[in-house]
Amino acid sequence: MQRQDLWKIFQGDSILLELVRTPFWLSIVILAEQELKILDWRHLTTEARFHALLNAYIRRMLKRELPRNIYKQTSLPTDKQTISYLVRLSQQMQSESETEFLIEAIQPSWLTNRPFWYFIYKVFNRLLIGIALALSSAIPLYLTFGTLASIITALIGLCLGIATKSNTKIKTVETLKWSWRSFGKGFREGMLSGLAFAEYLAQIRSFNCYSSNSGRVGYRIQYLLNEKGVLGIIFLILGLFFGTGSGIWCGLMNGIVESSDIEEKLVPNQGIRRTATNLFTFMSIWGATVGLFLGLIPVLRLHSLDGVIPNLIVGISFGMAIGLGLGLWTLPIYSSFVAGAFCSDAAGARISNTN
User: At which of 227, 251, 275 does a domain end?
Assistant: First the structure.
């Protein structure tokens, strides 16, 4: 930078001199120096010089030529429009106490002036929960009790997912930590719910679910052992499998999702890429758990352990394929939906080209 006059001003302002020692602000000064009017800058206060430097940087960026392939179906936004978008973006970041703009940090709450897209996002978010509940419950029931039971269960799971008040705040999971305390809590909850569900299936299978004491876990276990003999033992073993499987799954989900963001961003969209990797990990665990249940279905239907190992292999492979498929389908839509809706006014390209 061949600007001795500008360098003298920085030497006389210790605050600005300290600021430009950082690579980020030094690059801003280098890019904006052609837009600075030194004669006017000499008589400004430090704060006014800071604002003048940022304004000069914005003017310099607005003059840059953008690649033609960015705006194929829409016209290039005017400088006034782009500045308006940047003001709106800065206001949103200030309200969220953010100092660095990241695409993965855009939240659905930023769509305040686009209520339709915010509504679509919430519906899509709840549908994902409903689909997961429907798949994880309807497939085993279809293989065990037939079409009607699976349809009813799928509809119930879908309705529960839609009715669930899910958290609409997007948080990237870039790094994973492990918490045995959270794992233990999730394992206990999953174990109890899995055992209760398996015992309920056993009562339906034995066509004796109308006893006044049938709601008690202890009575159901005693009934199966006393009245059903070997069949009851098989159902108890199956219940332990269901409970252990759901307990491990819930424990892993609780134990793994202890995350913290990476402090240093080394590549663009680093948070999205790391979150994608972790999403596939979660979906693989979910798919393997569902596959474990599918592999145990023949035990419930045939009352025999014959061929259980091949069934488990096929079931786990099938479940993991479903989990990874859902992950591949969900991630591109889920991770970019809010960013696409927010930046659809064509501000995104100019923002990204200022880096």
Answer: 251
